[in-house]
């Protein structure tokens, strides 16, 4: 069993992902996670950090949430992953719970293990329903790294593996409804896929009426609207799904990350009747051995129960006000934090440097806070507080953020950091 920090780093560099490790090290970040609980984790030296990354929202309800741990422990005394060919009480109950969270007419659920796989299911369902192939998304959008999901997002990684398909996946600028109209019409698109707030792009807000315009474009051209809520869903916006916040109804919705409570990988694709029709025609058109594993379903059911409690909703609203007000106060006191993007507990903090979020990430780490830059816009820090955060924790985080902004601002005129090859 590994216990030495240096050994863990060396073996990671040798056998796992040397480039990613080298990239983080060039930014002054070398974390090996140790103990973890609530919204904090310790590194191997025993230093505790506030977690404001939450692995994309995977830990919405905290690390090792005691209720979820208890549910998993009890489930392990009775079941395992189950058999994906057979009906399962846990799987059926979770499908019913998920469908009860939405009002856009979804009546079927397909379970999988990751957000990427769930996006693949969404694209396949849209293609089957429309008889078309083209998928429209946005520049610098991210929908995963598997086959179809990788090609649907920013295609550098797909191109790297020769998995891109430019004839079938079309990208247009964010907030440009006119470009979206042209793309959907000329490509004869099967679907548009969007995150209501594009996470890897730094959570830029949709322009007033933009998402409604996209919905209208899809309706007029008989294309389906896929809402990717892998990072923005499960009450992080204050509503079950961020798309609700903008009054728009999709045809398909994808969720993952926080659904498994940080304890068991599970994802789901929610389908309205038209894209769900294949489920009554071909029961083996898509199968996933671990999709909807019974252990994961037990955990996810508890995630839905906790997230939907009135007390949880009240805590989310209070933390959103508390942190939003505090961050905007910091913005008023410095010209380095130039924008606070907020929808509920979804925050993007934009700084006055093209890599300002990298400098801020390191400054926050030195202050005992872990948060990450946005992969497609390194001027923006992803800031993802937990759904059950306490007022005292909010105050402590804001104090640390204020100090870190002062430190990071000293690098305002620094040359961009190089990316190791």
Automatic annotation (TrEMBL):
PROSITE patterns with a match to the protein in the record: AA_TRANSFER_CLASS_3
Alphabetical keyword list: Aminotransferase, Pyridoxal phosphate, Transferase
Keyword Transferase: yes
Cofactors named for this entry: pyridoxal 5'-phosphate
GO MF annotation terms: identical protein binding; putrescine--2-oxoglutarate transaminase activity; pyridoxal phosphate binding
Transmembrane helix recorded as keyword: no
Organism taxonomic ancestry: Bacteria, Pseudomonadati, Pseudomonadota, Alphaproteobacteria, Sphingomonadales
Family: Belongs to the class-III pyridoxal-phosphate-dependent aminotransferase family.
Protein name: Aspartate aminotransferase family protein
Pfam family for this entry, one: Aminotran_3
Source organism of the structure: Sandaracinobacteroides saxicola
Gene3D superfamilies listed in its UniProt record: Aspartate Aminotransferase, domain 1 (3.90.1150.10), Type I PLP-dependent aspartate aminotransferase-like (Major domain) (3.40.640.10)
